[in-house]
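Hey team,

Filing this mostly as a record. A colleague (T.K.) asked me to run one chain through the structure pipeline before their review meeting, and I want the input and output archived in the tracker in case anyone asks later how it was produced. No errors, nothing strange. Just documentation.

Input sequence:
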Amino acid sequence: MKSCFFLPLFAYFLFSCNENESPDSDVEGSLPFKTDYKISDLEVSGFFENSAQPKGKVSLKEGSGLAYSRQNPGFVWTLQDKGNKNSIYLLDANNGEIISEYEIKGTKNRDWEDIEISIGPEFGKNYLYIGDTGDNNLEYEDYTIYRFEEPKFEESHRFQYVTLDVPLETIVFEYPDKSRDVEALLVDPLTKDIFLVTKRDVFSLLYSLPFPQKIDQKNLAIHSGTFSFRIATAGTVSEDGKEVLIKTYDRIFYWVRESDQSFVDLIATLPSLVPYEKEVQGESICFDDKRGYFTLSEWSDGVIPELNYYKRK
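Output structure:
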């Protein structure tokens, strides 16, 4: 491995859902891929029910990101973007109701755009990753990802505003060329590498932050590829690392990983599409523990968004 990340990734391959050997990361030292497929030619996966199951209205105006809770099964984490609090919200996955609001002490919401759940530095723990990566005007010099252990809901938190003072890792990074607007954050649980998919480029770009990410100095994101679609608004990786979803306002792209594929090799292949009933301003997606997926929109034109669920067949 080159550049400033000298620790070999195989030293961190402690997690695999099926206990198979994890694929090596090819983030560094590889040429960026460039896909060339027509969206109209993509097939629709038959793994999911075609119609969404509405779970309930969500009374957040700017929901931007979803992560299915592992500490609290049956609940989903979300957040709001620019101009809102540095809080995450725990939703009841069965009805969309806000159960608790958690302010994360030591963080700042400049423009939070996505939330992901995955493993992290300490083996056996689940972490939330908050991407303060939005930049509508392409004006910022650097960006931040906050990483902390997933909170445990307590009954005393129900319908309360709770301030959490938790051990917090702040991953600051910059892009190698210019400012970027990113709303899709993904974490590979097999390598703990972080991936970012841009929104406002002619075609969406993939950038990478290999593990271990620095928390004491600025990281440099690596350009890892160019997609055949644009305006990516959300992304998620399944708990076992075998499936990936990236959504735009119009579609959701889906990849299934082979046992020997790195994340970049996977995402460079031809995706399929999964069912999506277009939302007013859909900027959130996550897998659940049954391998289905949730989507959520922001409010727009007075339409209160619905927490939608697509069931695995």
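Quick notes for T.K.: The first helix runs from residue 263 to 267. The helical segments are 263-267.
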